[in-house]
Each structure stands twice: as C-alpha cells, then as structure tokens.
Amino acid sequence: MESIVAWGLGGLLTGLREGVEAALIVGILASYLVKIGRADRLAIIWLGVAAAIVASAAIGVVAFVALGSLQGAAEQFIAGTTSLLAVVILTYMLFWMRKQAVSMGADLRAGVDRAVASTSILGLGLLAFTAVIREGIETSLFLLGQTTAAAGEGLSVVLGAVVGLLIAASIGVLIFRAGLRLNLSAFFNVTGAALVVIASGLLSYGVHEFIEVGLLPGLVTPLYDISAVLPHTAGIGQFLRAIVGYSATPELTTLLAQVAYLLFGLIFYVRPVWRAAATRAVAAA
To answer: Is 0.70 topped by the overall pTM?
Structure first.
C-alpha cells in the first residue's frame, strides 16, 4: 500500500508540475488573443493544444507497449536507457524553464503577433502545438521512466499523473476565467526541487539496470545490507524506494551516482532562489 501511494504521489507531482507549465503557456496565448481583440482565433489554439495532448499520449503509449514487449537483458537495457534519458531531459527542462520564465510571456506574445499579422491561422495552431507538446513529450518520457521503475505498480503512477494533470487544468481555467493569482515562482521552485529528488531515484534505478546487464561496474556489490533493519520491499523502505530510489542493498556505483546528482542538482537548482531572496531582502532593508 505504501508503495502504491508513493508511486501515485510521484506521478501526481510530475503531472501537476508539467501540467501547470502547459496551462500557463496556453493561458498566456489565450489571454493575449482576447486582449488584442482576436478571441475569434481561440478555437485554433484549443485545436493545437488538443493535437499536442493526443500526440504526447500516443508517444507515451507506443513507447510503453514497445518496452513491455521486451524481456531479459534487452528489457533491462532499454529500461535503464529510458530512465537515464528521462533524468537528462527532465533536468535540462527544469533549468531551461527557470531561465526562460522571465521572457517566456513576451516570446509567446511576439509569436501571436507574427501569426496574426500574417493572418496565419495555421501559425497560431502550430504555436500552441509546439509550446504544449514540448511539455507533453517531457511528461510522457518521465512517466515512462517512473512506470518502468515501478514495475507492477505502474498504474498508480499513471493514475497519479492523470489526477495531477486534471488539477493543473483546473488551475489554468481558474487563472484564465476567474483571475486566480498563484505564486508561480514559489510553486515551480518547490515542485522543481521535489522532481530533482524523484529524478535522483530514477537515476539510481537506471544505473542499477546497467550494472545488472554488465555495462557498468558495481565496484562494491552490495556496499552494505540493512534489509533486516529497513528493507526496500515493505513498509517505509518500500515508500522511500518509490520516492527517492532507496535500496537496502545498493551498489557503490549506484549510490555514488544518486548522491552526486542529488547534491549537485539541489545546490544548483536552489542556489539562485536563495540568492534572489537575499537580494530582495537587501533591497527591502
């Protein structure tokens, strides 16, 4: 039960974070069209968004089915590769989103202006499609890594992600229709740091799979065994395994990779936030 809740929580966080990013992008596009008196073009925005959602879901389903058809060493290799690729893409997108957040709204509005000026309905649809599918593919790939690591409990990851996406869609509607004000900076900072932690667990899973097929050395296998105290197959240990990739019998290589990623990921992701907060405090003083 603990692992089901944990995997579901991981999926929910992924869906919520990526869903709010997509909802924010769509909200900027829709609000700007209304502002410049071109609400008649909203339909093509929704069509582009729907196409991006369908395409992202299709990519995720095809990849999941293809992965499920493999067995033995091939399955372990692809599972490990998928997990590591998901970590790389998620890490890149977290830092990219934080960097682009300042200018993203202006860039999207400029894209709308160009499409409207050229009377290109297709251009508006493609703008919405490309903006959303980037988030959709990232979400699909990261969820694929999570469901692979979750083994028989992958359904809880998917259900959690669906709930997260529904919540994100509701937030987007409230922002657009009711003028809801959300501290997006704080939201992205907290969820981003949490996803770094989850990604570290996914990294440990990918490294472990590569060790299993002989592509990486374990160095010391296992480094220690505390199964008698906190096994990763039940209770709290199972919950921690789902959230942070905990193992009671880790290889040295796996543990080093996870700890290094966790430390550097959190330091470089959170440090600018601390620096900005300190700057604001000095300015206020």
So the answer is: yes
